[in-house]
Amino acid sequence: MNPQEIEKKSFEIITEIMQKEYPDIKIPQEQQSIVKRVIHTTADFEYLHTLCFCNDAVKRGKQALKKGISIVTDTQMVKSGINKKAVECLGSEVYCFMSDEYVAEQSKKQNTTRAFASMDKAAQMQKELIFAIGNAPTALIRLHELIQQNKIIPPALIIAVPVGFVNVVQSKELILSLDVPCIVAKGRKGGSNVAAAICNALLYEIIPNVL
Amino acid sequence: MNPQEIEKKSFEIITEIMQKEYPDIKIPQEQQSIVKRVIHTTADFEYLHTLCFCNDAVKRGKQALKKGISIVTDTQMVKSGINKKAVECLGSEVYCFMSDEYVAEQSKKQNTTRAFASMDKAAQMQKELIFAIGNAPTALIRLHELIQQNKIIPPALIIAVPVGFVNVVQSKELILSLDVPCIVAKGRKGGSNVAAAICNALLYEIIPNVL
For residue B86, what pLDDT is reported? Predict the structure, then answer.
């Protein structure tokens, strides 16, 4: 089997398991491809219970990508997991400022994390952006502050799926409290792979043949 | 809290949950840092049940890294997740051949996946290598063939943790059947993040201050 066939078969198996083992969970049509791609990436059906979509997240995210709005990630892993060809086709770009010298300096100076400082750097771009955060709760905490203080152009979409045990659950709740389109994995689970999978699911909805 | 403090706190929480909620699972001392780092990366305690260590995997993997043996990954995501500073300190390198032109050509010519062809490319290096496979069962299937047919220098360690629904479980069982040091996540779960976490756990055991 070639990769396309393997992927197609995988999605069939996922759909079958969802129907058989989770018949009571009804996922709205527009969220299906995202939820299934996250399960495809993790083999973890817990995301059926934890993925939340707020403020027209799917529609707004797709609209933004179609307009060529760029994506900011909090790890190089998220960046490398996003389909570059799809991003290029749309005239969009993927930025990760974690290795940026200015960000390293600022985080030292302010005694914060680089993820925190990298959100400030994104705010300085003064552009509408999509945020795909798969690792750092401090990125979400800073993003929440920047939005509340009107120090950033309101994001087109926040994908808030860090993983972990410290500040993770709380940082996601902060994002859910905002009036911003967001896709959030409630609880401890998530990760760079999950963040990239959500970006790709949105991209493939727009340009399916790029896969 | 700075990232080091957050990480330390996370590992304390993981250790506490393991003791309280899984008192019957005894992880050998040398495997602890790997198992905990995988849980740190996934927030998924199922790995307590599924991670297998065969043929002195931890000892052999650490010996290999100390000697500067290089790592071959099956995705750019695994490559970007591995701590570059640690790898450089040891005189090792991380290779991913998925975007290699020769690999793209060969996979087309032979109607295989690029992951399959990238294992052939690795075999052609004629060096002892560590393999960190977090995505492609076809990489493991080809690795198994190459080893059985003596067409590759026996790997120092195979990290076999692809995720998914097609051929994944079987490909991991193939690796477990070999007489080669391996760390395997049995079942469907795994991923690029898990593969990178296992590499990093080994690296940090050797040079803890690089974190």
Answer: 95
- Suggest the residue from B165, B192, B211 to mutate for an interface test with chain A (most A CBs closer than 10 A): B165
Q: Which whole number is the average pLDDT over B125-143? A: 97
For the question of whether the overall pTM of this predicted structure is more than 0.90, the answer is: yes
Mutate: best of A166, A169, A171, partner B, most B CBs <10 A: A166
* Cβ-count burial A118-139 (b if 16+ within 10 Å, e if not): bbbbbbeeeeebbbbbbbbbbb
- Of the candidates B22, B38, B29, B61, the residue with the CA atom closest to the CA atom of residue B161: B38
Is B144 tagged catalytic?
no
- The pair phi, psi for residue B130, each rounded to 5°, is -105, 135
The minimum CA-CA distance between A169 and chain B, rounded to whole Å, is 11
Residue A191 with chain B: CB contacts under 8 Å:
41-42, 191, 193
pLDDT digits (tens, 9 = 90+) for B6-34: 899 999 999 999 999 999 999 999 999 99
When computed from its CA atoms, the radius of gyration of chain A, rounded to whole angstroms, is 17
